[in-house]
Amino acid sequence: MKFVTFNIRYSWDADGINSFPLRAGMILCKIDSEKPDVICFQEASDKISDFLKAHLPDYNFTGHGRDADYTGEAMLTAVRKDTFEVLSTNTFWLSPTPDIPGSRYPTQNVCRRICNVTVVKEKSSGKAIKVYNTHFDYEVEPTVRMQEAEQISATISEDNAKFSMPFVLAGDFNSIPDSEIVKHIENNTSPKLKDVANIFTQTFHDFGKHEGVSKDFKKIDYIFVPPTVKSGKPVLWEDNFNGVWLSDHYPIEAELKF
User: Fold this and answer.
1) Can you give the CATH number for the domain in which 231 is found?
2) For the chain, which end, N or C, has fewer CB atoms within 10 Å of the first or last residue's CB respectively?
3) pLDDT tens digits for range 54-83
4) What CA–CA distance (Å, rounded) separates 6 from 76?
5) Sequence-ordered list of residues with C-beta below 8 angstroms from that of 195, at least 6 positions apart, any chain
6) Which residue segment(s) compose the domain that 189 sits in?
């Protein structure tokens, strides 16, 4: 499975030369050239979700917005039609009441947080794989992110205990590799997890503003899998043209073998 996690940056027209309409063609060309089997998009606003669905006909899409009416930024999972089939999908909120749309932890910022769960089947082998796609809170205070990490870990462990299958947890965790949040995910999920893109030290770059400045940009995007899953050397999508980037994050690509 060629797998990609991609924080696509929600803003449609507020980023100057990196406004979404000006980088949309580059994104489509990159996806067409790489042909990932599964793409986990974060920060897909309503307009961006509509655009991707209209212009990527080779993919089935699962997921919806984080607000109570299912609009707003989405965890959008794209599944390539010719290699994988979607078996099931559901979304839950990162909150004490995960089945209540629009719910949140009291300490979260105004933005609700969700996780999309999609089960896909590889057509060539018939193997089923569960994909968790999420985006943690971005506030400086890490307490809420630890609550989210604890919920994600517990949910995956419970799912695995009920019906064990290979799985991937991917997304923007707004946490650096040596944080307690990431350590909790790796060590307290059953089975334990590994980050297949641990060779990278940076994924957020704010449209190339890391170049020539002292600001400390960090790795906050991950692809976690159980130790039994093999992976090839991961790749960052670092494409840019005359200052226009795919996003303010580097998408991460990894070849996963289940």
Assistant:
1) 3.60.10.10
2) C
3) 999 999 999 999 999 999 999 999 999 999
4) 10
5) 177, 182, 186, 222, 223, 224
6) 2-257
